[in-house]
Amino acid sequence: MATPEEMAASMIANMPEKTGKSLEDWLTIVGASGLQKHGQIVKFLKSEHAMTHGFANLVASKALNPEPVSEDALVDTQYTGAKAALRPIHDAIVEFCTALGGDVEIAPKKASVSLRRSKQFALITPATKTRIDLGLALKGEKAKGRLESYNAMCSHRVRIEDISDFDDKVKGWIRQAYDRA
């Protein structure tokens, strides 16, 4: 039996033949309608465009819940334009952290990348076009020198402007945060 994803893919592939338009065309039509509720969109497509319920339901779902952006795309977007030169620093941090153990989870968000075990131990944020803020969960450690106080999610921060700033001292703090997570 086909999975729901396979059934949806089959319907999308057959949509131009069955409805006269591609999914992208239908999404444009729905977008222009200004409708924001699933039931309203289904009713609109069925009454105004003679679409069957199955196709109308699929188009409404896709219109209201676009495909999620991939994790790779989230990271790529963080390091475009003026922040592109920071990507090697990001990659070096991730490579180091994943080598700490097979239990490291990399969780990209729109503006940062969280590194977790049972809980978050580090956060990589391209803060400016010249600096990555590396947040670390080191609650109880005294902030001094490069290890600054930060926020509630990450108790400390290290500002990294050049790959040479990602030195043994920073790696030691990461390892300490990892061990605590």
Can you characterise this structure?
This protein has helices at 4-19, 23-33, 38-49, 53-64, 71-78, 87-99, 168-180, and strands spanning 105-108, 113-116, 120-128, 131-136, 148-149, 156-160. It is α+β, with helices and mostly antiparallel strands. The protein has two domains: 4-64; 71-180. A six-stranded antiparallel β-sheet has the order 1-2-3-4-6-5. Strand 2 (113-116) and strand 3 form a beta hairpin. The protein is elongated and about 70 Å long. The chain starts with a helix and ends with a helix.
Keywords:
181 residues, alpha+beta, 6-stranded antiparallel sheet, 7 helices, elongated
What is shown here, in short?
With 181 residues, the chain is α+β, with helices and mostly antiparallel strands.
